[in-house]
Amino acid sequence: MPRHAFRLLAPFSLAALGLLGTACAVYPPPPPPGYGPPAVALAAPPLMVWVPELGLYVAYRTPYRIFFYGGSYYYYVQGAWYAGPGYNGPWNRVAAAQLPPPLLRYRDENWNRYQVEAEQRYQQGGFDPQHQPFTGAPGRGGRGRR
Predict the structure, then answer these.
(1) N or C end of the chain, less CB within 10 A?
(2) What are the sequence ranges of the domains in the chain?
């Protein structure tokens, strides 16, 4: 092969080998379907206590803003709502327009007050039969044990 031919082909062979710099961007893959909030990690299922002010159940003595209403669990974190079949998900994002009306009454700055109300109600007992406290169910949905 003539020497000038090698000079003409060398850049192409180097590019084919990836040895020349390229101007292409690398993007991370999109999140998987159902990508949601940080995981809920509790040592035991939460106790769900009815809070009349909100008209729904609140996870009592937990740092996670978890609620139960109408057969589903809801999780409020980082300014967004998620719904799932159990207190630990799996979670799917829910638009505010799709939330049940009681959840629209929730204000994050009042979380501690809701916890105090749940504690008072739990300590006092005497729940009406429709609003008994229960232990949250993991990802299979519905209520847990009473």
Answers:
(1) N
(2) 48-124
